[in-house]
Amino acid sequence: MRFLLGLSRAIDALTAGVGRLVVWLVLLVALLSAGNAILRYGFNYSSNAYLEAQWYMFSLIFLLGGAYALKHNAHVRIDLLFGRFSRRTQAWIDVVGTVLFLLPMALGVLYLAWPWAMNSLAIREMSPDVGGLPRWPIKLAVVLGFALLLLQGVSELIKRIAFLTGHRPTPWDEVEKEVLE
C-alpha cells in the first residue's frame, strides 16, 4: 500500500502542477478575448487565428482542468444524498463510481481519441478556415486531458481504498485543508 500511496502522491503533484498552468490559461483566454473584441469592434479587424486560439485555450482549460477538479473534489456530483452518508459510505460510492464509470469512460475516450489524434498529427491537420491554426495540437490535448483524468481517477481510487482499509485518514481532509490554505 505504501507504493500505491506514493504513486497517488506523485499523480496528485502532477495534477497540481498542470492545474497551476491552467489557471494562467484562464487569464490568457480572458486577455485574448478582450483583445479580440477590441480589435474587431474598435479597429474593424478580425482574424480566424485569434478566434481559434481563444477556442483552443478555452478547450485546454476544460480538458486539462478536469483532473484538477477531480483532485479537489470540485467535479459535478449530486450531493442531495451523498452528503448525508458516512465518510465510509461516501468512500464506497466513490470507489464504485470510479471503477464502473470514470475509469471505463476515460479509457474508452482514450481508445477512440488516440487514432484520431495520431492521424491528425500524421497529416499535420490544419483548420479549414483561412488563416486558421493547426488542428492536431488540440486533438492531442484531448488525449492528454483524458490521460490526466484517468491518472487522477487512479489516484482517487487508491486514496479511497487506503481509507477503507485503514491505511490513511479520510481522503477528504487533504482537499478541505488545501481549500482553506
From TrEMBL:
<keyword id="KW-0812">Transmembrane</keyword>
<keyword id="KW-1133">Transmembrane helix</keyword>
<dbReference type="InterPro" id="IPR055348">
    <property type="entry name" value="DctQ"/>
</dbReference>
<keyword id="KW-1003">Cell membrane</keyword>
<keyword id="KW-0997">Cell inner membrane</keyword>
<feature type="domain" description="Tripartite ATP-independent periplasmic transporters DctQ component">
    <location>
        <begin position="32"/>
        <end position="161"/>
    </location>
</feature>
<feature type="transmembrane region" description="Helical">
    <location>
        <begin position="91"/>
        <end position="116"/>
    </location>
</feature>
<feature type="transmembrane region" description="Helical">
    <location>
        <begin position="21"/>
        <end position="41"/>
    </location>
</feature>
<dbReference type="GO" id="GO:0005886">
    <property type="term" value="C:plasma membrane"/>
</dbReference>
<feature type="transmembrane region" description="Helical">
    <location>
        <begin position="53"/>
        <end position="70"/>
    </location>
</feature>
<dbReference type="InterPro" id="IPR007387">
    <property type="entry name" value="TRAP_DctQ"/>
</dbReference>
<keyword id="KW-0472">Membrane</keyword>
<comment type="similarity">
    <text>Belongs to the TRAP transporter small permease family.</text>
</comment>
<keyword id="KW-0813">Transport</keyword>
<feature type="transmembrane region" description="Helical">
    <location>
        <begin position="136"/>
        <end position="158"/>
    </location>
</feature>
<dbReference type="Pfam" id="PF04290">
    <property type="entry name" value="DctQ"/>
</dbReference>
<protein>
    <submittedName>
        <fullName>C4-dicarboxylate ABC transporter substrate-binding protein</fullName>
    </submittedName>
</protein>
